[in-house]
Amino acid sequence: MLLGVLALVLCCLPFGAVWWYSGSRGAVSAQAAAPGGSVAAARAAGRAALTGTASVPPVVLAYHDIGRGSPSPYTVTPKALDAQLAALSAAGYRSLSSEEFVHYLRTGRTPPRRSVYLTFDDGTHGLWVYADRILARYHMRAASFLITGRVGHHRPYYLSWPEVERMARSGRWDFQDHTHDLHRRAQVDASGRRASALANRVWLAGSRRLESPREYRRRVEADLDRSIRDLTGHGLPRPRVFAYPFSEASAPANLPGAYRGILHDALRARFATTLTNTSGRPLPAGRRAAAAGVVQRVEVKAGSTVTSLLGRIRRWTAVQPGASPSPLARPALWERTDGSDRPDLGALTGAGPYPGRTGYAAASYRPDSSADWDGYTVEATATGLDAEGTNNVDVVVRDGSLDPVTVVISHSHVSVVEGRGPGRHETVRRALPVAATHRVRVTVHGGRTEVRVDGRVRVVRAGKHHTKEGDLSGGVALSVRNGDAHGHWPRFTALTVRAAGGHR
């Protein structure tokens, strides 16, 4: 009889394991209460830091996991999330649904109040256990970007489908796309190098070759379609937004030049927009990002304090061209683009220090909050221009757009350089009265650029015609060059930026 009982147990073990595994995959975990403790300091910080800002396009925040005791830099504690949302709520911010966010990008109609779009990548278990109750406390909502092939697997790290469905029913969450099974690294060449399986052709070990572009297209499209079916098959609305795995929207890929649009085309055919945390140029939510089809997010990590997050949100908040009467006196509003990472403008204003062998210093003015500028005038005064012609200054308008315009001033000439990257080229060169100091005024509106130097020399350029509104929007940048190691550095002594036709 004992042998019979043992045999019965052995026979049932596989079925028990299946039952346990299925139950784990379909489990709904208990939720943790929202953190206790005072958030008065966070609320006060939010009111102080952000309540003076005008109603502006939404800022997109990127979270990953929420949890306790994790060593991961991508896991924010419940207490930190609670304080961050308390600060935003105190500052009068509301959170957008994905539908509201997409509507804004498509119409340009700014939401009626200050707003954020809260996004959480990967679909981790902590969203249900910790984040959901915190959202409820502040009457906010968020979007979870699911790797659908991992939902219900690798428990308890990822959400289960029953948890996803409960979150959706709460009205606090909607669910968007983060691939089915392409959020991973794969071998992408014969040497064994690994990179994004979404953005690259993978190495086929059995055939000892890379996928063909056609095979790559089929694989990527099949994965995206599967992820969409997974979401809609569980009663969820069709996803409208896609978040790039590893935020690699602009990472190098191993596709031949003629085929590099495959992924972009596949995403554009299925989603209203895409999200990334890194970009080659600022792409905050707005006209420029809508035209590019990619929105850049502010990433929130374990080390993000309330103060640092509020500072980054303010930096990304759109402002009008005349928001700072004296831009050169506000170095914190500039971003050095010469690789120096210095927090000052000394190399451009004559205070130093100067770069070593490069002979070049450059900075962009409010690059994130000026991304959608159009219709403004820049006036600058530059001095120290060398009679030998070994130095010059640049004033850039539409900085970060697809067609920036650079006005180059030397002691005796003005040049207009149009375009960016390999397409950059000089279109106009005019003589100036020889002088160490010149004053330049540049007005931009749409594709039109008007340049005046010393009130005498006038250049008007029609510019390129782009089909999408936002392709030409952008702000202001400055640079100085010294081509002689023993020469003198030129410098800017004055700068104003204002809306075109407006007052200083």
List keywords for this structure.
TIM Barrel, 2 domains, six-stranded parallel beta sheet, globular
Specify the CATH homologous superfamily of the largest domain: Glycoside hydrolase/deacetylase
Q: Helix count, per DSSP? A: 11
Low-confidence stretches at least 5 residues in length (pLDDT < 50)? 8-23
Q: Which CATH architecture of the largest domain?
A: Alpha-Beta Barrel
Q: How would you describe the shape?
A: globular
The end-to-end span amounts to 98 Å
What is the helical fraction, as a range of percent? 25-40%
Spatial sequence of strands, sheet with the most strands: 16-17-26-19-20-21-22
Q: For the residues shown, what is the average pLDDT?
A: 90
Query: Rg from C-alpha positions?
Result: 27 Å
**Biggest sheet overview:** 7 strands, antiparallel
The level 1 CATH classification of the largest domain is: Alpha Beta
Overall tally of structural domains: 2
User: How many strand units?
Assistant: 27
| Secondary-structure class | alpha/beta
CATH fold topology of the largest domain: TIM Barrel
Beta-strand share of residues? 25-35%
Organism: Streptomyces montanisoli
Protein name: Polysaccharide deacetylase family protein
Region (Disordered): 321-353
Keywords: Signal
List the helices and strands and how they pair.
Layout: H1 2-25, H2 40-50, E1 59-63, E2 65-66, E3 75-76, H3 78-90, E4 94-95, H4 98-107, E5 115-122, H5 126-137, E6 142-146, H6 161-170, E7 173-177, E8 185-187, E9 194-196, E10 203-204, E11 209-210, H7 213-233, E12 241-243, H8 262-270, E13 273-276, H9 287-292, E14 294-296, E15 298-299, H10 306-316, E16 334-336, H11 346-349, E17 360-365, E18 376-383, E19 391-399, E20 405-409, E21 413-418, E22 425-431, E23 438-445, E24 448-453, E25 457-461, E26 475-482, E27 491-499
Parallel strand pairs: 1-5, 1-15, 2-3, 4-5, 5-6, 6-7, 12-13, 13-14
Antiparallel strand pairs: 8-9, 10-11, 16-17, 17-26, 18-23, 18-27, 19-20, 19-26, 20-21, 21-22, 23-24, 24-25
